[in-house]
Amino acid sequence: MAEAHWYVVHTYSGYENKVKANIDKTIENRHLEDQILEVRVPMQEVVELKNGAKKQVQKKMFPGYVLINMVMNDDTWYVVRNTRGVTGFVGPGSKPVPLTEAEMRPLGIKSDNIVVDFAEGDMVVVTGGVWKDTVGAIQTMNESKQIVTINVDLFGRETPVEISFSDVKKMN
Asked: Is residue 22 located within the same domain as residue 79?
């Protein structure tokens, strides 16, 4: 399978979140989770001064643009390109150009993969987040999103929960 890269998509101004939602919905409907891995609208914390009061707000880093981590092929290109609000990929002509490592670094996007010592069926303990100190067996692993699904006991029922690789440790 081809490798996924980050691409930049140009949208109508103000449609960034709507485009993200539409692409996420299409990914779910067409079962493209293994080809379109992540859709992001980069945000940054900004201090605004309104009526003499300082206020922390989230602002879009690149108004009119959405970042997509995907495997580029005819299907994924078609899905993204024909999403309502998308005007096209960034690149010369109709050929999308992936972002380089150097371009991604200031955006806080890390491409390093976490090497894990556990597999499906292993018992693990959660080391961080709201499920800290919870123990469970790994049901599924998603290498591309770097998450595991474990069943936890919630109100007397087994409930599947997704947890990041970095928040899980194999039990001895």
From this structure: yes
Q: What is the pLDDT of residues 18-31, one digit of tens each?
A: 999 999 999 999 99
The total number of structural domains in the chain stands at 2
Residue 154 belongs to domain with CATH number: 2.30.30.30
Q: What CA–CA distance (Å, rounded) separates 31 from 39?
A: 15
Q: Length of the chain in residues, anyone?
A: 172
Single pTM value for the model: 0.61
User: How many whole angstroms separate alpha carbon 131 and alpha carbon 148?
Assistant: 13
Q: What is the pLDDT of residues 29-65, one digit of tens each?
A: 999 988 999 999 988 888 888 888 888 888 888 899 9
Report the C-alpha gap between 95 and 124 in whole angstroms.
44
Residue 112 lies inside a defined structural domain of this protein: no
Token pair listed for 131:
């499920």
Q: List the one residue out of 94, 79, 62 whose CA is nearest residue 24.
A: 79
Range of the domain at 57: 5-107
